[in-house]
Amino acid sequence: MTRSEQLFEEAARYIPGGVNNPLRSFAETGQTPRFIRRADESRVYDVDGHVYIDFVCSGGAALLGHNPPLVRKAVLEAVQNGLNYEACAETELKLAKLIVQLVPSVQMVRMVSSVTEAILSAVCVARSVTGRKRLIKFSGCRHGSFDAVEGEGDSSGFSLLCGSDQDALVAQYNDLNSVERLFEKNKGQIAAVIIEPLAAHMGIVEPEPEFLQDLRKLCSQNKTILIFDETVTGFRLALGGAQEYYGVKPDMTIFGEIIGAGLPAGAFGGSRAIMEQLAPVGPVYQTDACNGNPVAMAAGFAQLSSVLNQPLLYEKLAREGEKLRAGLRGLFPQCTVGGVGSVSSLLFTPGPVKNDKDARSSDKGEFVRYFSHMLENGIFMMPSQFEPIFLSGAHTERDVEMFLEASAEFLA
Ligand SMILES: Cc1ncc(COP(=O)(O)O)c(C=O)c1O
Q1: What is the pLDDT of residues 67-122, one digit of tens each?
Q2: Is the pTM of this model over 0.85?
Q3: Which of 42, 91, 316, 381 could form a disulfide with 297 if both were Cys (CB 3.0 to 4.6 A apart)?
Q4: d(CA 5, CA 336)
Q5: Residue 224: helix, strand or coil by DSSP?
Q6: Probe ligand 1: pick from 116, 160, 196, 233, max atoms within 8 Å of CB?
Q7: Domains plus CATH for the chain?
Q8: Residue ranges around ligand 1 (CB below 6 Å)
Q9: Nearest CA to ligand 1 atom 8
Q10: H/E element holding 113?
Q11: What's the mean per-residue pLDDT of the chain?
C-alpha cells in the first residue's frame, strides 16, 4: 500500500469522502488521490516520493507557479507581524488600489475569504441596488457552493441563496435567446445576471462573438446588474481579466484566490455607487473576521505587483498554451480542444462544444483511462475533463512537451 493510499483510507474515516472539496475526489477515476507534500514552481511532490508536473496550479491561483521567491518572502515577512488582526492594515489598501488600477470596471473592492463568499455578498449587493430578487445564471458555469449539482440541476444550488427555486433562473451559455426569454417572462424582476465570461468548468468554452456584448446590452436595457465571475480569468487572461480581453465591462466582478496567490481570499468589486451599498456606508451587512487577512493580502500583492513587472508574461503563457492546444489537436483529432492563453481543456467528444449540454456528450471512460495514464506518467491534472488544464509562469516549453509526450504515449 502506498502512503497516499494509507492516508486516504484514514482520511475517509474523518473527512467526508476523504476530501475537503469534492472536486479533488478521484472516486470516479478509480485512482487514489495523491497526497501532496510540497509544491515548487511547476512541480508538486507527493508523500510517496513521486514528482509531477502540475497543471492544477492551485486551481489557477498560482499564476507564477508554486512558491515564487517574491511571494514566499512577502508571506514570511507578513507572518512575522502576526497572522490576523480584525483591524485595518495597509496591505489591504495596497492590494485594493492595485486591483482598481488593473481592472477596468472596478472602482471599489471588498476583500473576503473565499469566492463563494464573494458571490454570496455580490448577489446581496445587486439585490439591494435593484430592489429585485431574481437571478439568472448559466447552466454549467460554476459560482461556488451554491451549485450543488455540477452540470445538471444548476438551479437547486442557487435556490439556497435565492430562497426559492423560482428565484434562480438558468440560461444556456452562448444562447442569448435563452436569456431574453427569461427577462421577458420575469419583467422587472431580475436583480443580476452572473456569468463566467470564459466558461471554464465545461471544458474551456469561449463566448461566441458578440455574446458578452449583447448580454451587456440586455442587462443595461433591463437595469440589471451584470456580474462577471473572474475567478479563473481575473489577472490570468490579461492583467485586466476577461473584461479587458473581450472588451466588455460588467457592473460587478468576482475575484478568486489568485488575489491571495493561493491563500484563502476572494474579493468582489464594482463602481463606487454599487459598492457603497455595503455597510458601514449602505445597508448590506457583510462581515468576516478574516476579510483582508494581512498574510493573504501580502501574498496577493507580491504576486500581482510582480506580474506587473513582467510585461512578457502573458505572451509567454499564450505561446505555451497554444503549443499545448496545437499538440493536443494533432494527437486527438476526434476530441475537442478548447482554451485561451494559459487555460486549456481536452474533451473526449468531437464537438463542437458551445455549452454544458454539448460538453456532457463527452466520453467519461476514455477520460478516466487518459487521466490514469497521465497521472502514472508524472502529469498532475484535475480528475475531471471539464476542469481547466492550467499553465503558470513557472512552466517551461519542456513541461508542455512532456505533457504532450505523455499524451502521445497514451495513444500508443
Ligand atoms: C468561476 C468560479 N467561481 C466560483 C468558484 C468557487 O470558488 P470557491 O470554491 O473557492 O469558493 C470557482 C472554483 O472553482 C470558480 O472557478
Answers
A1: 999 999 999 999 999 999 999 999 999 999 999 999 989 999 999 999 999 999 99
A2: yes
A3: 91
A4: 33
A5: coil
A6: 116
A7: 3-55+312-411 (3.90.1150.10), 69-308 (3.40.640.10)
A8: 59, 114-116, 142-144, 196, 229, 231-232
A9: 115
A10: none
A11: 94
